[in-house]
Specification:
The chain is an alpha/beta fold. The protein has helices at residues 21-24, 36-46, 63-72, 91-106, 108-111, 119-125, 136-146, 166-178, 180-187, 189-195, 199-209, 213-240, and strands at 2-3, 11-12, 14-17, 28-31, 51-53, 59-60, 79-81, 84-87, 114-118, 151-153, 158-161. Helix 4 crosses helix 11, helix 4 packs across helix 12 (213-240) and helix 9 crosses helix 10 (189-195). The radius of gyration is 18 Å and the shape is globular.
């Protein structure tokens, strides 16, 4: 989604992904089956405005956030960090939401990343690295910090709906684990370690926030799934050598 004019509510919405004309419902769309980084880069290239906001299919932008964005467009910032409110509709979704909210509370500096960039900023630091499917937004953020971009923090959150079924987390964990080696190469082991250095504190906070033994067990199960996915990919790569 892109803001056509900084001081108005006129928007250009571009859908990028495995969509068709019927799903787009009259909106501009780009059909692709590429990963998230590639999709965002295609959206950047097709857009025309000064500011570009990246939304995933499981995110919703409330009117309060839209109003806040339109009010600050004249402040000449390069990027905006938008906090997220995670919502789960099942026990698995609630467990995942609790984990992610705990990440934001404990490690806001490395978990709340810019989702809105100015076009001039992206022209300066470059687009997303299209080979990355994990931590691609963090890698872009590190480039933004290195370039000394002016980054502002917003108050209104995005709404992020968590997957409902355990199979969604199994598939996601396996896919992300498979791309970990590329992310480590792109970001460097030092940045990866910093990104995950507060995991024990986050776990304590997440368990403290979980009400009931079943929710705690669901949370621990999701973390175990991530660990298994990572371990399986490491073993697979070792066996290929």
């Amino acid at each position: 989604m892109e803001f056509m004019e900084p001081n108005s509510e006129k928007l250009e919405v571009i859908l990028v992904g495995d969509v068709d004309e019927q799903q787009a419902k009259g909106l501009k769309y780009i059909k692709t089956k590429g990963n998230r980084s590639l999709a965002r880069n295609l959206g950047i290239a097709a857009s025309k405005g000064e500011y570009i906001l990246f939304l995933d299919s499981d995110q919703y932008m409330p009117k309060s956030l839209l109003l806040e964005l339109t009010k600050i467009m004249d402040q000449n910032f390069d990027a905006a960090v938008i906090p997220e409110k995670f919502i789960g509709l099942t026990i698995w979704g609630r467990a995942s939401a609790i984990w992610k909210q705990a990440i934001q509370r404990i490690d806001q500096a490395d978990s709340c990343l810019p989702r809105l960039y100015s076009r001039r900023a992206l022209e300066k630091i470059g687009p997303f690295r299209s080979e990355l499917t994990l931590l691609e937004d963090y890698e872009l953020y590190l480039r933004a910090v290195k370039a000394g971009l002016k980054i502002t923090l917003l108050k209104s959150p995005l709404i992020h709906l968590e997957p409902s079924h355990i199979t969604d987390y199994l598939n996601k964990g396996y896919t992300y684990a498979g791309s970990l080696s590329r992310s480590i190469k792109a970001l460097g082991i030092k940045n990866i370690m910093r990104k995950y250095s507060k995991a024990p504190l986050i776990l304590i906070e997440a368990l403290r926030s979980s009400r009931g033994i079943f929710l705690k067990l669901a949370l621990l199960s999701l973390l175990f799934i991530k660990f298994i996915g990572l371990t399986s990919q490491i073993l697979r790569r070792l066996s290929e050598r």
